[in-house]
Specification:
This protein is of the alpha/beta class and 230 residues long. The protein has 7 helices and 11 strands. It is globular, with a radius of gyration of 17 Å.
Length: 230
């Protein structure tokens, strides 16, 4: 039996939620999604907290972070209490940025303006790297994760999400028709999908040099979070 997330919100503690559909026909067709896959991806992206606006994906990311640090409250309280955590956020992770900013050493960079495959950041200088549904847009995701590992301190972590189709294996979209995420009518180059991740996403993490890869589930299969430990 699948366990559905019912709250409270791990970001802000809110207890009221709403949902909406976010996928559009062209994306469904290029991604070749089944009805079940459409349903759980729509839930991942469209189910959200009314109080902070974060969707199930961002809520899962938040729960994974506070769990990894052994913190027993919300992400908001975590950021207020553990302000010494040096966090690098690559692209805004849903509506989490406003909470991450409470950390004194939070830094937000934007891909592709800031090359994720060649980070201009000092080695072993960051405690935590966070990115959400960004890696699939990077031409070489293994290289990007290797760069995330390089800048992490000895006990550092990279906690992230990618859209995972759990019934498939990862595949490159090289040679296939272009596929874009983002908005249905805006096929921006930085929204082009280079990799469709599947159940073997852990291989990309370990090939990048991380010694451990955990798949954390707030809700299966809608909210799966990757925890990569250096």
């Amino acid at each position: 039996m699948m366990r559905l997330f019912t709250g409270p919100c791990p970001v802000c503690g809110g207890e009221e939620f709403s949902t909406c559909s976010v996928l559009w026909p062209q994306l469904i067709n290029t991604w070749q999604l089944s009805e079940d896959e459409v349903a759980y991806i729509d839930r991942q992206q469209g189910f959200h907290c009314k109080q902070c606006g974060n969707n199930l994906r961002a809520m899962g990311l938040s729960r994974a972070i506070i769990k990894e640090y052994g913190f027993g409250a919300t992400l908001n309280q975590f950021c207020e209490s553990l302000s010494d955590v040096k966090l690098l956020e690559i692209n805004a992770a849903g509506n989490l940025t406003s909470f991450f900013k409470k950390l004194s050493s939070h830094r937000l960079i934007e891909y592709p303006q800031f090359d994720m495959q060649n980070l201009d950041i000092e080695s072993e200088s960051v405690d935590l790297v966070v990115h959400s549904d960004t890696l699939e847009h990077v031409p070489n995701p293994e290289r990007a994760l290797s760069e995330c590992r390089r800048i992490l301190r000895g006990n550092g972590k990279c906690i992230f999400t990618v859209p995972i189709i759990v019934g498939r294996m990862t595949r490159s979209r090289v040679g296939l028709a272009p596929s874009y995420h983002g908005q249905s009518d805006v096929p921006a180059d930085d929204q082009m999908v280079h990799t469709e991740f599947g159940a073997d996403v852990w291989q990309t993490v370990l090939k990048a040099g991380f010694y451990s890869c955990e798949i954390f589930s707030l809700e299966y299969p809608s909210a799966l979070i990757v925890i990569a430990r250096k």
